[in-house]
Every structure is written in C-alpha cells, then in structure tokens.
C-alpha cells in the first residue's frame, strides 16, 4: 500500500544537504497511530496539516524511506544500515524526533552491533538512546586503550567534553573495581593514556560549557 502510494493523503518532501528533492507519499492515519508528534501535527493548524506536506531537511531520504517502511511493515531494513551506519544514525534521529519508541529501540539494537563505537556512543548520547548508550559506554570502556588512540576519540573532547568526562569517569570506576584483572605492563600503559586524557580534558575545558555535537 505504501510503496504503491495508493490513497496517500500527505507527502514527505526531503531536501537534505542541497541534494535533489525526494518525495514519499504516506497516509495520515498510519502516521498518527505510530507517532504522537505526527498526531499533534495533523490535529492542529500546523502548516503540515494545512498543506498535507511534511518537509524534512535534517535527515537523508534513505532514512526517511526506512522510517516509513518500518511504520507500514513493522520491520527495520538492516542492510542499508549495515552498509552505511550514518543512515542508521539518521533513522535514530528521526525516531527520536517523531517519538517512535519501537523504531528507536530497533535502531539501537542494529547500531550496537556496528564497530563505529565512538560515533555510535555520541549519537546515543545526543538522541537519549539509553540502552545503546549503556552498551556503547561499556564497549568503549572495555577497549579504552585501543579506542583512545583513534581520531574519533581524540575529537570527542572537542565536540563533546561532557560525554568524554562520562567515559573517563566510568573507566576510573572499572579500574578501581577490578585492579586484579590487569597485567602490570598493560596497567601502566593504560593509566598513562588515561591520565593524559583526563588532565588534557580538565585543562582544555575548565569553566567551558560546550553543546553536544556529532559530525554530520
């Protein structure tokens, strides 16, 4: 019904990053039972209700397609996300924006299996994806020595010092709880990296309050 656009009564218009405009037909009834945001949108005198058009300029068309497929079919297509995890982050953004709880949970589950740990953690923090954030934090903590050498981790302090401090706090807690599980040499290397990052973060962002951010 959705892919054939039979009887559609509203249109998603996607204009993302100056790319060619992409349109998807949809049914108000389906959208309203799936999302309290869409329900409010179509029950009031908002422009989307008056024009029967929902303009999306902050998410790519493929993620909008995946969202609509989920709303109509009840299944999240994983292959596009596995090929390009940024699409998954965009779906997570849409699920949070339109308060589609079950889609958010399914997207979290797919994303937590991917290897882009720092970017996934940042997205989970930004979009209040509680389960995904917990899993990502634990993964980053368990692989701290390796991940702390990546460009993504080094940029985390600039883009999101609050989240970096959260990571470092968890690492400290784990180190205090399980010191017997670390070999001496690895422990020394680990703490050298950790201490450097902690001091650098304190010096660089002392007194600053920066907004959370994630690269597009």
From TrEMBL:
Q: Which InterPro entries match?
A: BACK, BTB/POZ_dom, SKP1/BTB/POZ_sf
Q: Looking at the Swiss-Prot or TrEMBL record, what is one Pfam family this protein matches? A: BTB
Which SUPFAM superfamilies would you find in this protein's record? POZ domain
- Tell me the first and last residues of the signal peptide: none
Residue stretches making up the BTB domain: 8-80
Record's protein name: BTB domain-containing protein
Taxonomic source organism: Reticulomyxa filosa
């Amino acid at each position: 019904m959705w892919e054939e656009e039979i009887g559609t009564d509203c249109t998603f218009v996607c204009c993302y990053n100056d790319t060619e405009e992409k349109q998807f037909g949809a049914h108000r009834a389906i959208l309203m039972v799936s999302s309290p945001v869409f329900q409010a949108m179509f029950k009031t005198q908002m422009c989307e209700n008056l024009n029967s058009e929902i303009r999306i300029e902050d998410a790519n068309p493929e993620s909008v397609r995946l969202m609509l497929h989920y709303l109509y079919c009840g299944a999240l297509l994983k292959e596009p996300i596995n090929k390009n995890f940024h699409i998954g982050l965009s779906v997570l953004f849409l699920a949070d924006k339109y308060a589609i709880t079950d889609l958010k949970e399914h997207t979290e589950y797919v994303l937590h299996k991917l290897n882009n740990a720092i970017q996934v953690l940042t997205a989970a923090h930004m979009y209040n994806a509680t389960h995904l954030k917990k899993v990502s934090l634990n993964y980053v903590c368990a692989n701290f020595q390796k991940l702390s050498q990546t460009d993504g981790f080094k940029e985390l302090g600039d883009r999101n010092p609050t989240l970096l401090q959260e990571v470092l706090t968890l690492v400290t807690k784990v180190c205090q709880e399980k010191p017997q599980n670390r070999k001496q040499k690895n422990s020394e290397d680990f703490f050298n990296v950790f201490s450097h990052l902690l001091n650098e973060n304190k010096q660089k962002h002392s007194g600053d309050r920066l907004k959370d951010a994630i690269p597009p």
